[in-house]
Amino acid sequence: MALNLRPKQTECIIRMLNLNQPVNATGTANEEVYKILIYDKFCQNILSPLIHVKDLRKHGVTLYFLIDKDRKPVHDVPAVYFVQPSQPNIQRIIADASRSLYDTFHLNFSSSIPRPLLEDLASGTLNSESIERISKVHDQYLEFVTLEDNLFSLAQKSNYVQLNDPSAGDREIEEIIEKIVSGLFCVLATLAVVPVIRCPRGGPAEMVASALDQRLRDHLLSKNNLFSEGGGFMTSFQRPILCIFDRNFELSVGIQHDFRYRPLVHDVLGLRLNRLSVQGEKGGMKSFELDSSDPFWVANGSLEFPEVAVEIETQLNKYKRDVDEVNRRTGGTDGAEFDGTDMIGNTKHLMNAVNSLPELTERKQVIDKHTNIATVLLGEIKERSLDSYAKKESDMIIRGGIDRNELLGVLKGKGSKMDKLRFAIIYLISCESLNQSEVEAVEAALKESEVDTCAFQYVKKMKSLNVSLASANSASRNNIVDWAGKLYGLGAVTAGMKNLLSSDSQLALTRTIEALMEGRPNPEVDSYMVFDPRAPKSGAGSSHLKGPFKEAIAFMIGGGNYVEYGSLQELAQRQQPVKHIIYGTTEMLTGAEFVDQLTLLGQKMGLGSSISAPALAPTQ
Predict the structure, then answer these.
(1) Which of 104, 190, 260, 454 could lock 78 by a disulfide, CB 3.0 to 4.6 Å apart?
(2) DSSP for 435-487?
């Protein structure tokens, strides 16, 4: 598989930690060199989901520091710097070199260092007579965060606000587009693939696609080409397709409540960089890691919460049975006559028992961790009626509306202010035509709960400007039956609703990716733009670019979420043979974080009742 992003990024980082020397089969350098690692906050976030402290030790890193901390000199030791190419970082490196903090400096920039900064670095180290300490300078093209095997984020904050801000000038928009293109270029350089690029016409998606196409074309002409995997035309079957979208393509998914495990953990407990902190059973906060090394998380992340609870119970019972079995086997012979043959049998049982202990201990830790997380989640679900929010929101989207009493009942019932605001916005998005008095009743109910309505007013304004929110081309109700079928294909659903849903109801994003990968004529995607950086400019519409494709990268500008990620992974697994889909975004956002951005836009447009400006949470 060409698209194995996580192993490829990890491999680049390990090579960097080994002073960019080739590593041997065991994944370590041939000669061990003790070294110091210096990084900035952004690069720390790149390392965090991929490399643990014990891995750093394995690669000879004895100490590690943030670049802006005061550090004492450590003589006779090389230092590996992994930082973004920025003016403050360059100045700090020059200062460190002039103070001779370390023996040699191996500089690694997370993306290509611009020429002016390189010249500053050269002149600064020359003037302080420390240039001989700079051993090497590398562009690493690693400016993205890989959270799971098929999930990455560019960790670029508040893109949605910046791109939709009515006061943003052309220059600012261009800078943001340039940053996104640079991040995507890093991902493609790490994968060493030049994809065929598709996107809807207009808006940020086309701006990014067209600029990325140009950047790849320019790069393919340069001598130091990072994409040397065979020139000339390769068939679409050996090349991936990169599909670029913008959050307004399907706004509702960024706001809805979801009742599956992975999205719930992210939305409710604030999973960030694969870590979260929850209240422990005996009081005090406990920190947990949730990534591909946790078998339970991998296997059950896409299940509904009640199914996860059942699965935890099942695993616990299986664990207890296995422990009983070990105890039974090693428990001796119940006072029967002792003879030599039995001793051999007993020793064998003991050996087996001893060997199975680490595996049993590990299983118990995983079960305890998820029991703790599920308990905290359950508390939140009960307190805020989150199951009811998820159910009613998906109902609204399927039916294109909701009974007025039920609507106001939710807004006056349980749930946080943010839950109510999200529900009210989904009401706006899902109704084909809005009833003025009903909207006023919703606004009154929100004000009664002291909810800041800026975001609600902003979406209402977008809707009145006839922006299509529900889906790419909300021509038919079917398009809006997005993920509800996935979410409530379970027993929790009323029988009547099951008939409403076809089994293949999906998110607009998933449906579109499926159509683009199939490459058959399809009215939904026939108008999409096609860019092939490997083809001459004139021949962009040639037929080999239409697919079918077995690998795809879906990229969402303006904020992604675990709902879309999960939906795309299910699509990939459903295909025969199984296909491979990576989901990437400018930043991973919870529903609340995304609504905070809508609130900011409402404030910028002078809409709504701002009670207090939301603080934008850090993103991953």
Answers:
(1) 104
(2) -HHHHHHHHHHHHHTT---HHHHHHHHHHHTT---SSTT--SHHHH--SHHHH
